[in-house]
Here is the input.
Amino acid sequence: MSAVSKQYDMVVIGGGIVGTAIALHLVDAGVRTLLVDGHHPGRATDAGAGILSPQTALSEDGAWVDLCMAAGRYYDDLAERLAAAGERDIGYARCGLFEFATRDTDVPAFEWVAKISAGRGQVVEVPPEDARARFPALAPVQRALYNPDAARVDGRALRAAMLAAAANAGLAHREPANAELLIEHDRVVGAIVDGERVACSTVVIAGGAWTPRVAESLGVRTPVVPHRGQIVHLVMNDVDTRAWPIAQPVFGYYLVPWPGGRVVVGATVEPEAAFDARATAGGVHEVLRETLRVAPGLRDATLAEVRVGLRPTTPDDHPLLGAVPGHDNVCVATGHGANGLLLGPYSGRLVAQACRGEVPEHDLTPFALDRFRELSR
Ligand SMILES: Cc1cc2nc3c(=O)[nH]c(=O)nc-3n(C[C@H](O)[C@H](O)[C@H](O)COP(=O)(O)OP(=O)(O)OC[C@H]3O[C@@H](n4cnc5c(N)ncnc54)[C@H](O)[C@@H]3O)c2cc1C
Here is the structure.
């Protein structure tokens, strides 16, 4: 049985931040696109804290840091594109970030972060009292760095805004439980969506932690595993948190303030949980214990919500972006781990360029799937 006539040029499987960004860039380039998303429990985009601070990225890998910096710069363009479509409510704000040490044992790590952040932007060491002056719930701080360029974004709102803007530009969107690749004579010719055969020229797999389940039908191994993250939303009554910066202890959990007294704190990193997307007593205990250690002023906050997401994580913590070796009409975009809200929209732009046959504006070679060919044997 051959596939039905081609209604779409491309199908994107997976509609988290990454797949939705790819779909938006494809329709903006005039590509007839279908986005399919199963909204599996544990979709990482729904739980992400929303920290955008490439200047303090904890890595000395030049290619990866360059990608993070470019992704951070791209946010202003994206916000403008969405605003032009009337989508302004994405929680994006340049709120600044304090990275700090509270104990003697934190100082070596603090000095390493200060060293690697130097020259990436305007990160400077500031008097430690500044951190508490701007984020009054904190315990006394020993050393503090300030990154004025750090921003935050609401992953759920951003995903919804990109989807709405893309739909406005002609994107088709469906929500099947599990889309599959449609393969004929070892070649991908489309996708199977709710049992229906949908033909297309190119398929992009952006299935987050579930990507290997889609790619394995091609005999291709994508080394991505879920790292569960539990994150807690606290609300302080009658406290104006709108202008508070992000607080990031060098060891321990971050605190991300939002308007309305909300402070989001987290998150656990639990590879052993695999695809179990439950919130657990132990996870919430760990987050709150670490939070109250560095921010005792949050003790009386209301525990409003716990979110759980499965970060799609690769062995080297860097994303998988671009063509699937041996299949010239299949691309992959996943593995953004703990940085997918920062990287996802820009990765989406680059992968959309690559799968349209263009040379991406940022070199994707360091993030190609074939860097893991040893693992595939
Ligand atoms: C607690 C937590 C905090 C985080 N904080 C930050 C942060 O501060 N800053 C930052 O930059 N990043 C952060 N991240 C990371 C970021 O959220 C993720 O890297 C990013 O959301 C991954 O996006 P994704 O689109 O690849 O995957 P997901 O959001 O998981 O989406 C994948 C989608 O693919 C769909 N799918 C999969 N297979 C199929 C199929 N066969 N058929 C149909 N649909 C399918 C799933 O249903 C799902 O909806 C955090 C993550 C967590 C969990």
Remarks:
- The two ends are 32 Å apart (CA to CA).
- The first helix runs from residue 17 to 28.
